[in-house]
Structure prediction request, 324 residues.
Amino acid sequence: MVISAVEYIVIPGTNEKISRIGLGTWQFSEAWGVLDYEFAKQIVVKALESGINFFDTAMVYGNGKSEEFLGKALKELGIRREEVFIATKIPGQFLDPHDVFKSVDRSLKRLGVEYVDLMQLHWPPCWHNHPTCPYMRALERLVELGKIRYLGVSNYPVALIEEVRSCLSRTDIKFMQYRYNLIERQAEIELIPYAEKNNMIFLPWSPLAKGALTGKYTLENLPKFTDVRESEPVFHPGNFKQIQPLVDELLRLSKEYGKTPAQISLNWIISYSKNILPIPGAKKPEQVVDNAGSVGWRLEYEDWRTLDEISKKIRISYAVGYLY
Ligand SMILES: NC(=O)c1ccc[n+]([C@@H]2O[C@H](COP(=O)([O-])OP(=O)(O)OC[C@H]3O[C@@H](n4cnc5c(N)ncnc54)[C@H](OP(=O)(O)O)[C@@H]3O)[C@@H](O)[C@H]2O)c1
Prediction:
């Protein structure tokens, strides 16, 4: 299936290789609009042909549709289970220990697999007040029983990751997944250093800022989105005005390197840390091929720094949309 190989990294403390770039599959849902199974399968085919073996999904994406589409595609394509790394997520509201078992069973069924490679806590149980250790012990039991290989956190602050880890006796957190891209760099303050210090893989979500870093959206050409981006602050004109100089530089570098702006943006975050493995989503097969081409080469240091300086000037306001 692999036609061109991407760059690979080893999961710390193991000999296991995963592609340096993954495929995010939230797109297989109403939120993003890839609802035709055959079309979604073509995106998975192109990911595999490009050498991508890391797939990110979640129980809540399309109410299970994303897991279903991904599992069905891998099965129909005859992919052996050990050839791919399947990462999914359990939402904060399913963290009652009884629900942990029930929802993991259902997730495995939707994916059509005996085990998942990575189960991530999608977000903390902030509205349901589940104490940490009971749900972590339930998840650890599922590791012990062979249903989950690795555990990860997503959108958990450092203090809570420490608490999560203190509940585990036989395993540890190996992956951290957070918003991170050239526009939204808050993860550099605490989270990426934590991943580096503790030898964990850091998975940036929205690594293309939901398409804002692909060069196709400009201040003069900001579409009225009818998907999850309808009220996305990054695309608010007041914010995009600040982003435009970064997009201009990405377009300039794109010509210089013969790479697309999306590839330049992803390469920038990959260069930031050896622990980073971005998981861009794709709505079309050609986008996943393009994103796979963001690894296997590096930006010159001077160009990396130019983007660094321009991006540091951006201050996104998230308090937009309601009053103006
Ligand atoms: N853990 C969490 O809480 C969390 C939150 C969000 C996302 N995620 C995960 O992260 C993945 C990626 O994040 P995301 O989907 O929010 O945003 P993203 O990867 O930053 O952007 C994806 C969008 O950008 C456009 N695009 C992608 N590649 C392109 C290319 N090469 N050229 C031009 N346009 C391209 C596509 O939309 P258009 O073509 O319509 O512009 C695509 O739907 C998700 O699929 C999901 O698996 C996790």
Summary: The beta strands are 8-10, 17-19, 23-24, 54-56, 85-90, 116-121, 148-154, 173-179, 201-205. The chain has one domain: 8-209+261-298.
